[in-house]
Specification:
alpha+beta, globular, 13 strands, Donson, nucleus, developmental protein, DONS protein, six-stranded antiparallel beta sheet
Length: 555
Amino acid sequence: GQSPAFKKPPALLRLKRRRPGRRTDPATAAAEAPVAPSPRGPSAAARRRNPFSSLDNAPQRAAAASQLPAASPASWDPSAAPFWQFLEPACEEKPPRRAEPDERSDNLTLSQDLHSPLAVPKAPSSPREEFPADWSIKTRVLFMSSQPFTWAEHLKAQEEAQGFAQHCRAVETTLPRSVQEPRLCTELRCAFQQSLVYWLHPSLPWLPLFPRLGADRRMAGKACPWAQDEALQQVLMSDWSVSFTSLYNLLRARLCPYFYVCATQFSVLFRAAGLAGSAVPSAAIAPTTRGLREAMRSEGIEFSLPLLEESRTRKQKNSEESLETETTDGLGGGSRVEDAGEPAHSDDDDDGSFSWLEEMGVQDKVKKPDTISIQLRKEKHEVQVDHRPESLVLVRGSSNTFTLLNFLISCRSLVAVAGPQAGLPPTLLSPVAFRGGTMQTLKARTVSGRARVPGGFEDVFSLEVLGPVLPHALHALTMVLAPAQRGAFRALLSAHEPSAAFNTCPAPPQEGEHQELPACGLHPKTLEQLSQCPTLGKSSLRLLEMKDYTYTWKA
């Protein structure tokens, strides 16, 4: 056995650390801190954290905490508490990026969410029976309620198995409007397990396969035996192509409502006919680059840039209105009209003709721009949207989506050739089973705490769901939580930002044909929600609140 003196080494180290600290002058230490040499090289920030640093930093942390005012929405650090990151107006346009938290940091973050004041801004929407469909993929959803979530804890083996069976058989679970004893309701617990299931390919448990955009740092240092083995890469890609084709065939047969293809540089959302207000199959790609769009054009794929076209139409309409206003001001306004039309005219006339140089006799003294530069100048507005939400590409129709399928299978930029993700095929995410797919479940856990409210504190219970929360899963979870929490809960949603552009409506306004998807594996109410034309544009839901069985939300 071990000696009793070494059972708790941190306590022993704490005593040794305190002795030199007593002889240190705080004022001298504070004066010397700004002139301390900074770490040399970029690798210093990535060094392993000292596990005993919290011991010698304890007095400073306590002193700093004593100087801070009471927690409030205005003074709360959004980077430390995601709760206020969602709700502060200052963080709406560009939320700070956070590294993927580990289990220990998740516990700290969740406890901060619970102990934060519950002052929630008013949602701009009016109360409705249903919230709009959100086609972005959520990485984290935090449900909060005054009613406990103990019914979602420690599912029995039979309840878990029943939930999996209900998912595979597409069983429609009908729950009452309100459940008096949620913990004793087996149907409720089985429906909760059913709502957490999704399908994934490839399945590599030691690698985080979502998100793939910007995931090199999280994948660094992981075992990747295929990185230097071309034969293994070909086997993985061949297996992936079979799964991808299987998903597309299910979608064309209306047996799969939608699925995602998550690559290292872009993501693709395939939707069956009848979803998102479209009468034909559609595919959305975001973000894209000029090179990818040119490659698609060369393959004969017809597509549109709806967000870019909408922006151009809006600017053109505004300019026409401003010109009409100026023409009413007299002759001076007419000269301004001519000046305003000159840039567009000069852009259209940049066709590479330089006959005017020969007329001046300086054709040999002036360096002429090459054809590529002229073309880039013409397409500067399209190039400027690369890697942005406005670069969303929309492909419509069975023939175009099938051509896109073959294009993606043979696309070289689909798989990284260097870095931690080299040779790894894209991630396939689907709500239904497909060939080569692996059943996965979202991670769910419950935490209880006390939150500050005007006049004191109150008990707050939370349910955190981690993982790629697909659109159907979000709606299924709300249908389970409504009767369990007696029609009152709040949800804070963290979206994968590049996928927010998928909320652009894929169908023209005049398209009114409706397609039925009876056997696609989704609940009828979920299917009805996803069939509506998206209304969120290039944004996503950030706050969803149910009160008296009606929804309000904020995007």
